[in-house]
Amino acid sequence: GIQVEQSPPDLILQEGANSTLRCNFSDSVNNLQWFHQNPWGQLINLFYIPSGTKQNGRLSATTVATERYSLLYISSSQTTDSGVYFCAVYGNTGGFKTIFGAGTRLFVKA
Amino acid sequence: EAEVAQSPRYKITEKSQAVAFWCDPISGHATLYWYRQILGQGPELLVQFQDESVVDDSQLPKDRFSAERLKGVDSTLKIQPAELGDSAMYLCASSKSYEQYFGPGTRLTVT
């Protein structure tokens, strides 16, 4: 089945710093989403981005489907950006289903 | 803004007891998903419904878990009997096409 790998697994930033999170997937996928899980466990939609580039404020994302990766950029990080960032892909893994990566745990220090 | 509703938010139960979770998707969303998230891991799909039909339940432990969406709207996930290893966050999501929206989850602790 499709494997989804996220890197780095853990990241500590000083407030105001920029960062890039990566999501690699082992096979072609139909869709890809990025989520932020807050400390209460709620998954917040960041981007639905099967291909191309999108921006929303300080966040942007790029998916290069032909090379099987997606990147999430966080600029001018804030303490409220702390949490876990997941990418999720929808592809054929013995039937089409959604597969999540293990996440990147981000802590932004004040 | 429409949201996915879940209840209860927290549940503590003893092993061998039955437990049920409820999910109400965003109005108009035909696809409903149940995920289980073990601490420190990403969510894992348990079951996916398209309207009232099960599309995928390959990861659902069918000896103790059941899920239904009788009228194609809200859904119930049941565990009977609960085991210690079932302690996790249970997340419900819905979608109109492919973009999924998640509810707040139910945090289950089995003692």
Explain what the structure shows.
The complex is a heterodimer of chains A (110) and B (111). With 110 residues, chain A is mainly beta. Chain A has strands spanning 4-7, 10-14, 19-25, 29-37, 43-48, 52-56, 59-64, 69-74, 83-92, 96-100, 104-109. In chain A, the strands form 2 sheets. In chain A, strands 2, 4, 5, 9, 10 and 11 form a 6-stranded mixed β-sheet that branches. A 5-stranded antiparallel β-sheet of chain A has the order 1-3-8-7-6, with no helix packed on it. In chain A, a hairpin with a 3-residue loop joins strand 9 (83-92) and strand 10. Chain A is globular, with a radius of gyration of 13 Å. The mean pLDDT of chain A is 95. With 111 residues, chain B is mainly β. Chain B has one domain (5-96): Sandwich (Immunoglobulin-like). In chain B, strand 7 and strand 8 (75-79) form a beta hairpin. Chain B starts with a strand and ends with a strand.
